[in-house]
Amino acid sequence: MLSVLPAPIDLAALEGRLLWRAGRMAEPPALTAATGWAALDAELPGGGWPLAGMTELLIEPAGGELALLAPWLGRGREPLLWIAPPGWPCVAALRSLGLAVERLVCVDPARAADAAWAAEQGLRAGRCAAVLWWQAGPIAAATLRRLHLAAQAGTTPLITLRAPAERSHSSPAPLRLACAPQPDYRLAVEVFKRRGPPMAAPLRLTLPWPGSVRPPVPERHDAVDRPAPAPVAAASPARLAARV
Length: 244
What we know:
alpha/beta
């Protein structure tokens, strides 16, 4: 009997389609949307936020996450589902960031299990532009996997906003970012999990001040010699509006 040997695999033909080398950025299978930050787009596979599946932002509550996401979330007309935000949304601050409050659907479940259920329903419906879930405490690995699959099935992006301490814990999210507020309303952003090489250094993005709480500009006749104010740590639009 004749034996037929399998044809050799052409690795050169596969490269760029089926093979991914860890030293270069991978092309994600799903679509992406520009973040509105050119420096951040250059660090993300596909050049933007994934439009399906789960992405994790590790950041303290009200630490500037809305200003970071606003250039992307402000596009489109589909509903935005927010689950357990750290504070009641401030209409003036959100509008100054380009977010239409008419699109917001906010729910505040009493338990983390109820929040996960609400997130899954919103993802599987496939009607939302994005689902944001703020969760300070730990989330079971099985729950994260289920939500990631739901976000893929419903072709809806899920942004989980978790505590920075969760960085040491594994997650099924293919994209994870650590964000830390900096003085002068800046945000240090490190993409520490992606299909690509490690970042050389975190990005430092200057976030926009909400128009309703922008620091006043001194008048020209004010020539009093006084010390410069101490730097102020960055905060989210909701927290800044609450101070007014």
